[in-house]
Design goal:
29% strand, 33% helix, 296 residues, Rossmann fold, 2 domains, Alpha-Beta Plaits, 10 helices, alpha/beta, four-stranded antiparallel sheet
């Protein structure tokens, strides 16, 4: 099966300035792909090329197996796009904006628009210029979702949204995936990417420095472990165990990081009379910091 998104050695130069360099990645059908990196890393440049707002200096992009430049119009019919910094007509209401976009596409499913507006708590009867940052974002999201596209391409989609609306947006993305859809999402919210994405790419200074499945994230960074035990001998045994690092001891409580297979740790711990044992899985923030620390 052909990937929905495919970048092959893509470089984008702005004069002498590098936007991205030699980036290759694939996103398969039915996957939610998170794209992470600090400001200026190349996230927005990449997204702009995916929707043909700007074009590669070198390399090529394919969407749905089609050429990202030559077949741009056909591709756009099948995607929903939200830019990180978008602008709409300040004098129109949300409904008027969406009707305009819908007519450009050949029609508007008003019932589905009403459903999305209700779920996102969006008042479409107010003029765009009167809306707060978060409510403007809701109109943008509806415009990207209302034609039920196969592929969603979002740059910071939950910017300005309150937590309840963010969670509802996450539910919409999960439903999109269950229906067979694909998404490419740039976000600075690591918790958001960890919650909804299947795979994540890390970009730094224009280069893709890592691409990992979320299911494998836990293997990339150590777990945080806390053990409460009155037996002083446990600290020595733990110190000898491969994978244990940064151990501190406060009275009967031992805290440390642990990398690798969890079974040897559990086997050792089970041979002592414990009062408590807590193992916190590595989160995406820990992995993010580890990867970027190595890349410096």
């Amino acid at each position: 099966m052909k990937p929905v998104i495919e970048l092959n050695k893509v470089t984008k130069l702005y004069g002498q300035t590098v936007g991205i360099k030699n980036v290759s990645l694939q996103v398969q059908s039915g996957r939610i792909f998170g794209f992470l990196g600090p400001n200026g890393a190349g996230k927005t440049t990449t997204i702009s090329m995916l929707v043909d707002l700007t074009r590669p200096t070198r390399g090529n992009i394919k969407i749905f197996g089609l050429d990202g430049t030559a077949d741009s119009l056909e591709i756009r019919k099948r995607i929903g796009f939200l830019a990180g910094d978008f602008a709409l007509d300040a004098g129109l209401t949300g409904w008027q904006q969406l009707e305009y976009f819908g007519n450009l596409r050949g029609g508007l499913d008003k019932a589905y628009v009403r459903e999305l507006a209700e779920r996102l708590n969006c008042n479409l009867n107010r003029k765009f210029k009167t809306l707060s940052r978060g409510n403007r974002q809701k109109v943008g999201l509806i415009s990207a979702l209302m034609h039920k596209p196969e592929l969603l391409i979002f740059d910071e989609p939950t910017s300005g949204l309150d937590p309840l609306v963010q969670e509802e947006f996450h539910n919409i993305i999960r439903e999109h995936k269950r229906s067979g859809g694909t998404a490419f999402i740039s976000s600075h919210l690591l918790s958001e990417v960890q919650e909804i994405c299947d795979e994540v790419g890390f970009v730094r200074e224009g280069s893709l420095i890592a691409q990992e499945n979320m299911g494998e994230i836990a293997t990339l960074a150590p777990r945080r472990v806390r053990v409460v035990c009155d037996d002083a001998g446990l600290a020595q045994k733990l110190g000898e165990l491969k994978g244990v690092e940064d151990m501190t001891e406060t009275k009967s409580t031992l805290s440390f990081t642990y990398g690798g297979n969890i079974n040897p740790l559990l086997k050792l711990a089970s041979s002592y009379k414990l009062k408590d044992l807590t193992v916190a899985e590595a989160d995406l923030e820990t992995v993010f910091m580890k990867i970027y620390g190595k890349a410096k």
